[in-house]
Amino acid sequence: MLADPAPFPGVQLMATRLVHVVADANDPPGLARFWADALGWVIGDVADDEVDVWPEGYRYPDPSALPLVFVPVPEPKQAKNRVHLDLATRSAKEQAELVARLRDLGATPADVGQGPDVPWTVLADPEGNEFCVLEPREIYMDTGPVAAIVTECVHPKRLARFWTEAAGWPVARSEKGLVSLRAPGEVGPFLELLRGPEAKTVKNRWHADIAPFLGDETAAEETRLRALGATSADVGQGPEVTWTVLADPEGNEFCILTPR
After folding, report:
1. pLDDT in tens, 26-49
2. Cβ atoms within 10 Å of 95's Cβ, excluding its own
3. pLDDT (tens digit per residue) in 146-158
4. β-strand 83-87 against 130-133: which pairing, if any?
5. Domain chopping of the chain, boundaries
6. Per-state percent for the chain, helix, strand, coil, to nearest 5
């Protein structure tokens, strides 16, 4: 297990928590429809600058699920994503049926160097974003359709120290090359930091959004996360936005939203 992070002089330790996952999309409504159908979720809020997907009856921001938010970008996908979703299944039959259904929805096979003998299936959504349909695993039986949000990184344990603070999720599992975080109460999907061979070269097309609790201050949380290793990130957001864009210690972009 990881040691508790040491306090930083002059920084008031408060809290942020992971509230949703954002995906860049050339066609946000189209990609949102794919993922809503893939997960058995519904399209929630729709605006010019985003389309949200979440479980039917979901009350935001409940950690039992992480909504997906699709935002428009002009540039196409350029490289294998460092952030991807793993989907859970409960049986071999369900895994096969889910793969077939996803293919019918527009998913295509993807080669990320996984080899022919792995028990999971790697697919890409209609805009080329890789994701995995996992074989049944006991650890993911209660996560809902999304087993994990996976980020490839160079140093999983080091990065976990940052994300336990940023996401507000404690470490649930730590082993060689992998650290898994999960929301307090052990509900919803895992946030997994997986050792990968490739360094980050382009802006991530999937990223996390975190938010302070009501009564806390975004500026104070930004200061706290910078002390933990976050740095400024420019993704073309402009000066008028109400959120703050940062990068974690390995360069993965994320946003701090207003308190909620």
Report:
1. 999 999 999 999 999 999 999 999
2. 20
3. 999 999 999 999 9
4. parallel
5. 16-256
6. 20, 35, 45
Q: Which two tokens mark 29?
A: 């409504």
Token pair, residue 97, equals 């049926």
CA atoms of 129 and 126, how far apart (whole Å): 7
Q: What pLDDT shows up at residue 198?
A: 79
What is the pLDDT of the chain when averaged over all its residues?
A: 93
CA distance 216 to 222: 11
pTM here is 0.92
User: Strands 83-87 and 146-153, how do they pair?
Assistant: antiparallel
As a residue count, the chain comes to: 260
Choose among 104, 105, 87, 103: nearest CA to 95. 87
CATH class, domain 16-256, is alpha beta
Q: What is the pLDDT of residue 2?
A: 31
Which segments of the chain does DSSP mark as H helices, in order? Answer: 28-39, 92-105, 156-167, 218-227
